[in-house]
Every structure is written in structure tokens, then in C-alpha cells.
């Protein structure tokens, strides 16, 4: 079989190398398209373009398959914790028990933020969206670590990565607490990573916060399922901004902006808003009809995915978790009924089936987060906590195999 692809245009033939990865479709290397032909490729929304080589995450959208460094997400969710997966993404292997303990300890030590950051949280208006606070605070974090602007050693990248992974739950909890005027909370070093975040959301001075292991396990799974998802919109932002050699925390801040959008990480908040709007199972049909109407901007939130056209494996894990949690942490019974009715109808409706629109990770995570007492406005923030390890690992991978500055071209159609 040839490893060249031919393009013929205007009586001339051009050849391009065909590359093969370890899994997934072959890729035509089009980087010489302009120098060979004087033409650009147009791919709006990058639906057919691979923007980098990566060995972190593999997705097969047709088969509903998601793997991190070779491990299937279902297996990881069943057998490992979020911190195991963080280690896997960043250090390329699952940790031994001793290594995991050391990693957890390192993150605990780094979980405090500079006291100066508190003045920043205090400055935001009460109605500021926590994602806007997150974006600004992570950008501000770069001012405390100017050395991360010029790193060239692997150890420096790892220190930079551990720092933000450790601090992000503290920043997220602070964003929430300041917004509501609650007293500031410091990390509790006696608690694990996920447990500490829940603690920081709920604690009050001199109060003892009792967290149920099932709640911690549920949130840990939610974090894990969001840990990385190859070259999605926000990760592409991290790589684009990173290609300019910007400060890594500035790259992450930009990605938080991208994630905030309701087509991306803002969708889980949108799912709950939609369930509230529909309110009762007998109104589901009306909203399904609206979702199918091209003249109505309403979309079924938590449905559809650019890559998964069969099912989203993360949604499968979460649906199982949601069903386990119904009795134990009390998921809103009415929301459950509305959500179930949406699924039952959409999964059998020609419009949704023919377009490959299935429940995505956000469809189920919203109900779980709500049951954990997490306010809607914090849902996307939790996505950030889960996704930071993926963003950082992608950035480190890119830094260690530098890329040209990302500079797309256009088809000019103006005056
Ligand atoms: N409800 C109704 N119709 C839909 C929906 C939906 N949720 N999603 C896609 N469609 C239709 C769309 O109108 C289009 O129809 P047609 O071909 O007749 O014009 C077709 O399906 C393809 O849609 P698209 O917008 O071209 O597909 P995309 O790959 O560009 O968008 C998506 C993917 C996730 C942005 C989109 O499905 C969507 O807006 N879903 C709702 C928001 C959501 O749940 N987002 C979370 C994504 S998963 C978490 C993450 O990765 O961030």
C-alpha cells in the first residue's frame, strides 16, 4: 500500500505523505500544501484536521472508546482514583502505592495560595460568574511564578504542573466562598485531594465537616472522567496559546475561557437549567419538538458530541454511578424522571439517531453534582478541576516537542 496521497488540480499532481499512528485513522500531512500548490485548506471548525501528534489520549468516536496512555476509561473508573489518572497523564504511568502517597503529599503541600490572592477574590462583584473569577485568578497566579515563563528542564515543567493541579481546588473553593461572603477556608492537610475540595466548599470555622465516602467517591469519578479529552476546544486553546511561549498559567486561563461556553464545559449547568425549565415529564415531548425545530435556538443540552457519534463512554460510567447514587445520596426524583424521559424519547427518535446525538458526559454529571449539593454555577468550575491535568499534560508534551507558532490562514471573502 502506498504511503502517499495524491491531489490533482488544474492538470497538475501533488503528493503528500500519509502518516500512521498507533491507533486511529491515517493522517495526510498537508503542511506542504501551500508551498507545493499555492493553495490553503479550508476546514471550518477543524472537523477533519489533526493539529498535533500526541501520545496522551486516544478517542475512537465510532466505537465509543476513550483511553488515557492506553488504559480504557471504564477500567480506570472502576479500579483507580482521580489522582492515579492525574499521575498517568502527567508522568506517563500509573503510580505505585508509594509513589501515589508521595504525589498526594506533594499536592497537599502545594495546595495553599499566596495570601495576596485573597485581595483579588474580594474585588469581584457578588454576581460574578465563578468561571470568570477562575479565569482571572489563574491568570493572576502567573504573577506569583514568573520563573515558569522560561522553563527548559523536565523537572521545572513538573513543578509548574503540580503547582496548578494542587492550587486549583483552593482557587475554586475561594471563588465560591468569596462570592457568597462565606468565611475563607484553607486546605485541610488531613484530607485527600477530592475530599479536601468538598471540605473547602462546605466548612465553617470551628465546624467539623463530615463527608460521606460515597460523596467523595462520586466527585472523584466525575473529576476523573473529565481529566483529558484530546484536542477539544479548550485543549486546542492551551496548545495555541502555548505555541506563542506564553506563561503556562496564562494558557490555562485562556482555556478556562473556552471551557466556559455552553457548547463545551458550560453544558452541565445548561442541563440542569433545561431540566428546571421542562419541570415535568409530560412536557418533555414539547421540548424535543423544539430541539428538532431549526427555527428554534433551543438544543437538548447534554446531547451530541463532535467526536462520539455512537455513545460517550464517560456518559455510560456516569449513568451507572448516577443510578447507584439515587438511593444513597438522594438524586432529585423529578429531575431523574424528566431526564429518563428525555433519554427514552431521544434515543428512539429518528432526528437524534440519524445525527448520532447521544447523551454526553454532561447529561448525567449535572444530576450527580446537584445531588452532592454543588451549586449550578460551580459545575463548569468542577470541570476545570478535572481537566487541569489534561491541559497541563498536553502543554508539557508540546513544550518538550516544540511546535511552530499556531498561525492558521483564511479564505478572504471581504472587500
Ligand atoms: N439538540 C438538537 N440538535 C442538535 C444537538 C442538540 N443537542 N446537537 C447537535 N444537533 C444537530 C444540529 O442542529 C445539526 O443538525 P443539522 O445537521 O440538521 O444541521 C447536527 O445535529 C450536527 O450538529 P453540529 O452542531 O454541527 O455538531 P457539532 O459536532 O459541531 O457540535 C456539540 C457538537 C456538542 C457542540 C452539539 O452537539 C451541542 O451543541 N450539544 C449541546 C451542548 C452540549 O451538550 N455540549 C457538551 C459537549 S460534551 C462536553 C464537552 O466536550 O465539552
UniProtKB/TrEMBL annotation:
Residue stretches in coiled coil: none
Alphabetized InterPro entries for the sequence: Citrate_synth-like_lrg_a-sub, Citrate_synth-like_sm_a-sub, Citrate_synthase, Citrate_synthase_AS, Citrate_synthase_bac-typ, Citrate_synthase_sf, Citrate_synthase_typ-I
Record keyword Manganese present: no
Pathway named in the protein's UniProt entry: Carbohydrate metabolism; tricarboxylic acid cycle; isocitrate from oxaloacetate: step 1/2
Keyword terms, alphabetized: Acyltransferase, Transferase, Tricarboxylic acid cycle
Molecular function per GO: citrate synthase activity
Reaction catalyzed: oxaloacetate + acetyl-CoA + H2O = citrate + CoA + H(+)
Membrane-spanning ranges: none
Gene3D superfamilies documented for this protein: 2.20.28.60, Citrate Synthase, domain 1, Cytochrome P450-Terp, domain 2
Family of the protein in this entry: Belongs to the citrate synthase family.
PANTHER family assigned: CITRATE SYNTHASE
Name assigned to this protein: Citrate synthase
Lineage: Bacteria, Pseudomonadati, Campylobacterota, Epsilonproteobacteria, Campylobacterales
Amino acid at each position: 500500500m502506498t504511503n502517499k496521497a495524491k491531489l490533482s488540480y488544474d492538470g497538475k499532481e501533488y503528493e503528500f505523505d500519509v502518516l500512521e499512528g498507533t491507533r486511529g485513522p491515517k493522517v495526510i500531512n498537508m503542511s506542504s500544501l501551500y508551498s507545493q500548490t499555492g493553495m490553503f485548506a479550508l476546514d471550518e471548525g477543524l472537523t477533519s484536521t489533526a493539529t498535533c501528534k500526541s501520545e496522551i489520549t486516544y478517542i475512537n468516536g465510532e466505537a465509543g472508546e476513550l483511553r488515557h496512555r492506553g488504559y480504557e476509561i471504564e477500567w480506570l473508573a472502576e479500579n483507580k482514583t482521580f489522582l492515579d489518572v492525574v499521575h498517568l497523564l502527567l508522568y506517563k504511568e500509573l503510580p505505585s502505592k508509594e509513589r501515589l502517597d508521595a504525589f498526594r503529599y506533594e499536592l497537599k503541600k502545594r495546595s495553599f495560595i499566596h495570601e495576596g490572592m485573597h485581595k483579588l477574590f474580594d474585588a469581584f462583584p457578588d454576581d460574578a460568574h465563578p468561571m470568570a473569577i477562575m479565569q482571572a485568578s489563574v491568570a493572576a497566579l502567573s504573577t506569583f511564578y514568573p520563573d515558569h515563563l522560561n522553563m527548559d528542564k523536565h523537572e521545572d515543567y513538573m513543578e509548574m504542573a503540580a503547582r496548578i493541579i494542587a492550587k486549583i481546588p483552593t482557587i475554586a473553593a475561594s471563588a465560591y466562598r468569596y462570592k457568597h461572603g462565606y468565611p475563607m477556608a484553607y486546605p485541610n492537610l488531613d484530607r485527600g485531594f477530592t475530599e479536601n475540595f468538598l471540605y473547602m466548599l462546605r466548612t465553617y470555622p470551628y465546624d467539623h465537616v463530615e463527608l460521606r465516602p460515597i460523596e467523595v467517591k462520586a466527585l472523584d469519578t466525575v473529576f476523573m472522567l473529565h481529566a483529558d479529552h484530546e484536542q477539544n476546544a479548550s485543549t486546542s486553546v492551551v496548545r495555541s496559546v502555548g505555541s506563542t511561549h506564553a506563561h503556562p498559567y496564562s494558557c490555562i486561563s485562556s482555556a478556562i475561557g473556552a471551557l466556559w461556553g455552553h457548547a463545551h464545559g458550560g453544558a452541565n449547568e445548561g442541563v440542569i437549567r433545561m431540566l428546571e425549565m421542562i419541570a415535568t415529564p409530560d412536557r418533555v415531548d414539547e421540548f424535543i419538538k423544539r430541539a428538532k425545530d431549526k427555527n428554534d435556538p433551543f438544543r437538548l443540552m447534554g446531547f451530541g458530541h463532535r467526536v462520539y457519534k455512537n455513545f460517550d463512554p464517560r456518559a455510560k460510567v456516569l449513568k451507572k454511578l448516577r443510578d447507584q447514587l439515587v438511593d444513597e445520596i438522594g438524586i432529585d426524583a423529578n429531575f431523574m424522571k424528566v431526564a429518563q424521559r428525555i433519554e427514552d424519547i431521544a434515543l428512539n427518535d429518528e432526528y437524534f439517531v440519524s445525527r448520532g446525538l447521544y447523551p454526553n458526559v454532561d447529561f448525567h454529571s449535572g444530576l450527580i453534582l446537584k445531588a452532592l449539593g454543588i451549586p449550578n454555577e460551580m459545575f463548569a468550575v468542577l470541570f476545570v478541576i478535572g481537566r487541569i491535568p489534561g491541559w497541563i499534560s498536553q502543554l508539557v508534551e508540546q513544550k518538550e516537542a516544540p511546535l511552530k507558532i499556531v498561525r492558521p490562514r483564511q479564505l478572504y471573502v471581504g472587500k
